[in-house]
Amino acid sequence: MYYLSYISDYAFFSYISVRAGLSFFIALILTLFLMPKFIKWAKNKEANQPIYELAPSSHQQKCKTPTMGGLVFISCALFSSLLCARLDNMLVLCGLFCLFAFCIIGIVDDLAKVLKKDNHSGLSPNSKILSLIFVSLLCILPLYLGSYISTELFIPFYKYPLFDMQIFALAFWVLVLISSSNAVNLTDGLDGLATVPSIFSLLSLGIFMYLSGNVIYSEYLLLPKIQGLGELVILCAALIGALMGFLWYNCYPAQIFMGDSGSLSIGGFLGFLAIVSKNEILLILIGFVFVLETISVILQVGSFKIFNKRVFKMAPIHHHFEKIGWVENKIIVRFWMIALLANLLALATIKLR
Question: Is the peptide bond between 253 and the residue preceding it cis, with omega within 30 degrees of 0?
Answer without folding.
Answer: yes
